[in-house]
C-alpha cells in the first residue's frame, strides 16, 4: 500500500526537512519561533487565574515524588503531566497562536510537551525552539494534506495535538527526521475523535484535548523508540480512511521552501478567531465606550462567513461557549465597549445587558464572500427603535495574514497578560525574542527566570 500517489514522496520530503538545526541557520525563523513560544507561554500564565486551571494543575501534580517539570499554574509534576496542565492553560482563553492556511494551532500542540522535555533533559533554548519549529511543521503539514471538511466535524485539538507533541519530543531526543515521523505514525493512531460541536456548545472537555495530546505525544515517542511503530501508510489510514478526510494532491506534490511557523498568526482577542471580524465591527460601532441606550436597540444583524455561521448559540453557559458564540461576543463588546480578554470571561455570561443584546443578534451569510485573506469577513448593523442605525464592516480581523500583529504588539500582549502575576516576565520574554538570551542557555534556567517560584 502507498496511501495515495505522491504520499511516500511527500513523507520523505517532510522527514528530510526535520533534521538539522533550522533556527541556527535562519535568524528570522528563530525570532518567530521565540515569539510563538512566549505568546503561548503568556497565555498559560494568564490562564492560571481560572479555578478550573488551578484545580486541574493540582490534579496533575498530586502525589508526585519526582517534581521534574514546571506546572505554570503552580507546582511540579512528571513531564507528561506538567505538559498536559500547561496545554490546558495555554488554550483556555483562546489567546494562543494559530495557523490560517489550515485549521490548526501548531504552537499549542508542540510547545507544552517540548517545554517539559527540554526542562527535564537540560536542553538549550535553541534546542527548544527547534523542537517547536519541528512539531509545528509536522502538525500543520498533516492539517494541510488532509483539509478539514466544512462544516467542521472533528476538532484539530483532538486529532492533531498528539502528532505535534510527538514530533517535538522526538526531535529533542533524536534530532532525526526519520525518528520523528516514526513517532508521528504511532501518535496518529492515538489521536482523539473529539467533535468540533463540543466547542460550539461550550463543553469544556474540549479544552483538555490539547493536554491529552501532550501526554499521548510522550507515549508515542516512547513507543516508537521501543520499536512499537506503525508503517509508512499509518498516518494516511487514520486521516484518509478512518476520519474520511480527502487528501489534497496539490499539497502532496508541493515543494515547500519556508517553515510553516512563519505563517502563524497571533491573536489579540480572547475568543474563537472565527468571531474576530464581527468583534471588530462591534468595537468600531462602540468607539471604545459602552453602546448608548442599549435598551432601545431592536435588532442586531451580523452578516458573516461560513465558519462563523455555526457559532450561533444565544445562551452560552460556559466561558468556552461564550468564546464560540458570535451573538455573545458581539453583545459583550457592545455592552462594554472593550475587546479586553476579561470581557469574555465567564462572569459576563449572566450580565443582563449582554443577555438582552445577545437575544437580538441574527446571523446571516455574508454575500459574495471574498477570496483569502478576506474570506472571514463580517458586517454588523445595530438598529434602534427610532429608526437610526449603526453599521461597521471588517473584511479581515487583526492578526490575519494581511493585518498581522507585529513583534512589538505580541510582546506587549505578553506583558499585559502576565504583569499582574509575573512583572519580570515581559522583560525576559523580550530578551528571548531579541537574542538577549543566548541560544545555548539551558531552557530550565530561562524558564525559572520567566516563572520564578515566588510567582507560582
UniProtKB/TrEMBL annotation:
SUPFAM superfamilies assigned: 2-methylcitrate dehydratase PrpD
Q: Which Gene3D superfamilies match?
A: 2-methylcitrate dehydratase PrpD
Per UniProt, residues of the MmgE/PrpD N-terminal domain are: 28-233
Q: InterPro entries under this entry?
A: MmgE/PrpD_sf, MmgE/PrpD_sf_1, MmgE/PrpD_sf_2, MmgE_PrpD, MmgE_PrpD_C, MmgE_PrpD_N
Q: What region holds the MmgE/PrpD C-terminal domain?
A: 269-423
Citing just one GO molecular function, the answer is:
lyase activity
The family assignment reads:
Belongs to the PrpD family.
Report what the protein is called: MmgE/PrpD family protein
User: What lineage, starting at the top, does this entry show?
Assistant: Bacteria, Bacillati, Actinomycetota, Actinomycetes, Mycobacteriales
Amino acid at each position: 500500500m502507498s496511501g495515495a500517489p505522491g504520499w511516500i514522496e511527500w513523507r520523505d520530503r517532510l522527514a528530510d526537512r526535520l533534521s538539522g538545526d533550522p533556527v541556527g541557520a535562519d535568524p528570522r525563523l528563530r525570532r518567530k519561533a521565540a515569539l510563538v513560544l512566549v505568546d503561548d507561554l503568556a497565555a498559560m500564565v494568564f490562564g492560571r487565574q481560572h479555578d478550573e486551571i488551578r484545580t486541574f494543575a493540582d490534579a496533575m501534580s498530586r502525589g508526585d515524588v519526582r517534581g521534574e517539570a514546571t506546572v505554570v499554574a503552580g507546582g511540579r509534576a512528571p513531564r507528561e503531566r506538567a505538559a498536559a496542565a500547561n496545554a490546558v492553560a495555554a488554550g483556555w482563553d483562546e489567546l494562543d497562536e494559530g495557523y490560517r492556511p489550515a485549521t490548526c494551532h501548531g504552537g499549542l500542540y508542540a510547545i507544552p510537551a517540548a517545554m517539559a522535555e527540554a526542562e527535564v533533559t537540560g536542553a538549550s533554548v535553541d534546542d527548544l525552539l527547534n523542537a517547536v519549529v519541528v512539531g509545528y511543521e509536522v502538525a500543520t503539514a498533516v492539517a494541510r494534506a488532509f483539509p478539514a471538511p466544512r462544516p467542521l466535524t472533528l476538532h484539530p485539538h483532538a486529532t492533531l495535538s498528539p502528532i505535534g507533541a510527538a514530533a517535538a519530543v522526538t526531535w529533542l531526543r533524536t534530532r532525526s527526521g526519520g525518528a520523528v515521523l516514526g513517532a508521528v505514525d504511532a501518535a496518529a493512531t492515538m489521536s482523539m475523535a473529539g467533535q468540533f460541536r463540543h466547542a460550539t456548545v461550550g463543553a469544556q472537555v474540549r479544552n483538555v484535548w490539547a493536554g491529552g495530546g501532550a501526554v499521548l505525544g510522550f507515549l508515542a515517542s516512547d513507543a516508537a523508540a521501543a520499536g512499537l511503530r506503525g508503517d509508512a501508510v499509518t498516518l494516511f489510514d487514520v486521516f484518509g480512511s478512518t476520519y474520511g478526510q480527502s487528501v489534497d494532491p496539490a499539497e502532496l506534490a508541493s515543494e515547500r521552501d519556508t517553515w510553516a511557523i512563519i505563517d502563524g498568526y497571533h491573536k489579540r482577542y480572547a475568543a474563537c478567531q472565527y468571531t474576530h471580524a464581527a468583534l471588530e465591527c462591534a468595537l468600531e460601532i462602540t468607539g471604545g465606550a459602552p453602546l448608548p441606550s442599549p435598551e432601545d436597540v431592536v435588532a442586531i444583524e451580523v452578516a458573516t462567513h461560513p465558519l462563523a455561521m455555526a457559532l450561533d448559540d444565544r445562551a452560552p453557559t460556559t466561558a468556552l461557549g461564550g468564546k464560540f458564540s458570535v451573538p455573545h461576543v458581539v453583545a459583550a463588546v457592545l455592552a462594554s465597549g472593550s475587546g479586553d480578554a476579561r470581557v469574555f470571561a465567564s462572569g459576563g455570561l449572566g450580565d443582563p445587558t449582554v443577555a438582552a443584546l445577545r437575544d437580538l443578534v441574527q446571523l446571516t451569510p455574508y454575500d459574495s464572500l471574498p477570496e483569502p485573506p478576506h474570506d472571514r469577513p463580517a458586517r454588523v448593523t445595530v438598529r434602534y427603535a427610532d429608526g437610526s442605525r449603526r453599521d461597521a464592516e471588517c473584511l479581515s480581523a487583526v492578526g490575519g495574514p494581511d493585518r498581522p500583529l507585529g513583534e512589538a504588539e505580541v510582546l506587549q500582549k505578553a506583558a499585559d497578560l502576565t504583569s499582574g502575576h509575573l512583572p519580570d516576565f515581559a522583560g525576559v520574554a523580550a530578551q528571548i525574542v531579541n537574542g538577549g538570551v543566548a541560544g545555548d542557555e539551558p531552557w530550565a534556567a530561562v524558564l525559572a527566570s520567566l516563572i520564578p517560584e515566588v510567582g507560582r
